[in-house]
Amino acid sequence: xxxxxxxxxGQIGSELTLELRKRYGANNVIATMHRTPPSDELKESGPxxxxxxxxxxxxxxxxxxxxxxxxxHLVGILSAVGEQKPDLAWHVNMTGLKNVLDLAVExxxxxxxxxxxxxxxxxxxxxxxxxxxxxxxxTTMYGVTKVAGELLCQYYFEKYGLDxxxxxxxxxxxxxxxxxxxxxxxxxxxxxxAIEKKNYEFFVSKNTILxxxxxxxxxxxxxxxxxxxxxxxxVRTSYNLTAxxxxxxxxxxxxxxHIPELKVSYKPDFRQKIADSWPxxxxxxxARKDWGWKHEFTLAKMTKDMLDNLKAECNKx
Length: 317
Ligand code: SER
Known about the structure:
about 45% helix; about 325 residues; binds serine; UDP-galactose 4-epimerase, domain 1; globular; 12 helices; seven-stranded parallel sheet; Rossmann fold; alpha/beta
């Protein structure tokens, strides 16, 4: 197996790449990035390349050079940045995906993974236990690119038989690489600020509830989906996926169990409107049925693991 990971320096890419290298051999996983420099861990653990995914010929060169047969296309502009720069979000998210899908057909790539998101849903979607098949009328540019991308993936599967698989990730919480420019970022930022400043000001209200997941579970879900037999994959747009749903206040209280001095306040900004347009909880029973999805981390277990790891990181310096 020769794997290409685009967006390997992003929040998910930086951890998924390392897991893929562990599972399939370090030299079989080519990590690519555009402007952000790779971490030492990523650089030292296997091959890296620089590429702009909106440049089709540049991506082609890498596929040919490394005889790629599997692609994890993770590059994407997230929701909050996408609202500041909608043209950029469309360009990177759509042109990048179309280039990857076209090249995947041309070079007979065996499997492609592409992430969708809870952002594919919108204010007209049922907000509680959102079903797999439901109304998709997002109000952010990020969400628009996710719905269009999901349909494009399904189209390439139907028309060209391309084995493309996708997950609608909830907010992902992790300690290795911070997320960049998303609406769910508060659920990560609180951990950093709790340790460094004992003070955190949420940019959403305390009653804001969104679906979330710890990175370990997100990496596991991605690997499990990609390892499942093709005949089990009944959804070719993107699978609903979730682990936890909690309010801003609930995560604050959980962190305060470990750091009682932590003070929190709430000052909603433009991201509140985005959060309010997304579901509070997700029905991911199709993923559980088709390929055995099962999450491991509860809010309590995740909070402890996050704080242990972040504290260990701080102590290194
Ligand atoms: N975490 C993402 C965001 O907030 C959702 O996919 O934009």
